[in-house]
Design brief:
Structural class: mainly alpha
Shape: globular
Distance between the termini: 28 Å
Helix content: 40-55%
Strand order of the largest sheet: 1-2-3
CATH architecture of the largest domain: Orthogonal Bundle
Bound molecules: s-citryldethia Coenzyme A
Order of helices and strands: EEEHHHHHHHHHHHHHHHH
Radius of gyration: 22 Å
CATH topology of the largest domain: Citrate Synthase, domain 1
Number of domains: 2
Number of strands: 3
CATH superfamily of the largest domain: Citrate Synthase, domain 1
């Protein structure tokens, strides 16, 4: 019997859902949330307002914005039992391991009768607290409890460091930039979990585990590893050429959809450039040189910086350690994950693709002694 091989490796080009949440034009380098260009949103909106837009499909009025802001502020604290457990985790645990595990644990402590939307807000409010509490526990520092009067992004930086730093609005905008991006790997994985009608904690645990990988959200940490290893401008050319000769992937470059500059990378780079005019930003000059060499080498393959290339330099500027970069990605992307889960489940069908079997079919069983 002939087997027809029709495998779309990595599901490239395969549409798995119809969605009105975001649009990516990979040729033009454009990103749109619910009809609004990302450049417009980062200029005029806040993380709270953009979250409402992504969840509900339109910008909130004053009351609606007040509602979402209040809900996100009131739900920040973690159950005491969870904090106790976090104190017993090995201090060597990666913050993404902690985030993945604590989201999963929360599922056992939260009331089960909430709507998916209430659950989405609850987890969005609590993820920054999980991350900041782990930073404090890991570093043997006393916990700083959330403050309802602060914005979502400001409160996170406050819980990490005890004050809201200069340029904190850029951090808020960086969350907007990371909030949503169509059917990327973690959104797809979590939508698969949602399609089995599983609970929100399982959906978001799936998403966090998928985002963690260095080919996806984990790349932002790996970029900083690379920039640190390069160390100074003189080493860039040798280091990058060596990676290319060894056919290794250069972290923070390339994208399945963007075949031009990722608009988010462009925005991040420009912010850093603006701060750089007055202050020296660690690794920025090295990053610019890496970009120049990679763009030159891979002109034909259309490999450009993606969102993960410049984000770590900005977070590093705020004093955030590199192993906390991917959790910050998750802290923003939970909005997209939950929006897609809710949208997909309105017209749900369980995901069940197939694999084409190419192994043997007529083997005869023998036991461990060789008897048939
Ligand atoms: C994110 O999907 C999303 O939208 C994701 C994301 C989001 O917001 O959710 O944008 C966030 O995950 C950004 C990507 C972060 N990952 C990295 O920076 C890791 C490095 N990049 C890659 O490994 C890669 O570019 C991917 C994983 C991002 C995309 O993988 P694809 O689409 O499967 O592309 P590929 O690996 O098949 O590469 C195609 C060609 C290959 O060359 P050929 O074999 O055809 O000769 O391009 C080359 C690759 O070798 N290539 C690279 C490269 N990326 C692609 N070569 C060197 N360095 C790279 N980074």
């Amino acid at each position: 019997m002939d087997i027809e091989f029709d495998v779309k490796h990595g599901l490239e080009g395969v549409a798995v859902a119809i969605s009105s949440i975001s649009y990516v034009d990979g040729e033009k380098g454009e990103l749109v949330y619910r009809g609004f260009k990302i450049e417009d949103l980062i200029e005029n909106s806040t993380f709270e307002e953009t979250s409402y837009l992504i969840w509900f499909g339109s910008l909130p009025n004053e009351n609606e914005l007040d509602f979402i802001t209040t809900m996100l502020a009131k739900k920040r604290e973690l159950p005491e039992e969870i904090v106790k457990m976090m104190n017993s985790f090995p201090k060597t645990s990666h913050p993404m391991e902690v985030l993945r595990s604590v989201v999963s644990l929360l599922g056992m402590f939260e009331k089960k009768d909430k709507s998916t939307f209430e659950n989405a807000i609850n987890l969005t409010a609590k993820i920054p607290t999980i991350i900041a509490y782990w930073y404090r526990i890991k570093n043997n520092l006393p916990l700083i409890h959330p403050r309802e009067s602060l914005k979502h992004s400001e409160n996170f930086l406050y819980m990490m460091f005890g004050s809201v730093p200069e340029h904190s609005s850029l951090f808020d905008k960086a969350l907007i930039l990371h909030a949503e991006q169509g059917m990327n790997a973690s959104t797809f994985a979590s939508t698969v979990t949602a399609s089995t009608l599983s609970d929100i904690y399982s959906i978001i645990t799936t998403a966090i585990g998928t985002l963690k990988g260095p080919l996806h959200g984990g790349a932002n940490e790996k970029v900083l590893d690379m920039l640190e290893e390069i160390g100074n401008l003189e080493n860039v050319e040798f280091y990058i050429n060596d990676l290319i000769n060894r056919k290794e992937k250069i972290m923070g470059f390339g994208h399945r959809i963007y075949k031009t500059y990722d608009p988010r990378a462009k925005i991040l780079k420009n912010w850093i450039k603006d701060i750089f005019i007055n202050k020296k930003i660690k690794y920025f000059e090295i990053a610019l040189k890496v970009e120049e060499i990679v763009l030159n080498k891979f002109k034909e393959k259309k490999i450009y910086p993606n969102v993960d290339f410049y984000s770590g330099i900005l977070y590093n500027y705020f004093g955030i350690p590199k192993d906390f970069f991917t959790p910050i990605f998750a802290m923003a992307r939970i909005v997209g994950w939950t929006a897609h889960a809710m949208e997909y489940c309105k017209n749900n069908r369980i995901f069940r693709p197939k694999a084409i079997y190419n192994g043997p079919k007529n083997l005869k069983y023998k036991d461990v002694k060789g008897a048939e």
